Amino acid sequence: MFLFGVTGGIGSGKSAVCTYLKEKGVDVLEADPLAKQLTVSNSEIRQELIKCFGKDVYTRDGEINKERMRELVFSKPQSREQINQIIHPHVLQWIDKEAKRLNRDMGRSLIGVEAALIFESKMEKILDAVVVVHAPLKQRIHWVQTRNGLSREEVENRMNAQMSVDEQIRRADYVLNNSGSLEELRHLTNELFDWLRERV
Length: 200
Prior knowledge:
- By secondary structure, the chain is an alpha/beta fold.
- The chain has helices at about 15-25, 30-40, 45-55, 65-75, 75-105, 135-150, 150-160, 165-170, 180-200, and strands at about 1-5, 25-30, 110-115, 130-135, 175.
- It has one domain: 3-Layer(aba) Sandwich (Rossmann fold).
- The radius of gyration is 17 Å and the shape is globular.
């Protein structure tokens, strides 16, 4: 089994790359939706978050208080680190287990993981390779503003909450430069797919 991760700064195009890989039959596990799901469903995570940050991290109906969590994650580095330490071990455990299941029961030999915080969560320890998708800053800001309806300041706050692009690239096994059209991105993803297949 060859387990690889796809990451990159917000708005870099990593989800589009993963969509193209899925079209080629690659199973891609999505870490970020999983983390959100576990934050609600996992009692251990729930207890730790309440213990560290108070009951208002959850709403009355038991859902995550998005506004409060955004405040903790994007404006308080120390809180962000605490939250990551609470949630990420559970995410890594699930990914490891699910990848092994896909390999054992479905015969999958090439499996991907899409995650925004691969290096921050130490996920690279369970991966055979990390792919970093990189795009020009101006393009990323425009894309996130259009997609999420955020102000430039809000986008920059989210970007600053992630590891620098230079550091991601330095630690990557493969860098995909997404600076052209979607057609070019598809072509670059085909090249990535060939590179991955050579390593299985």
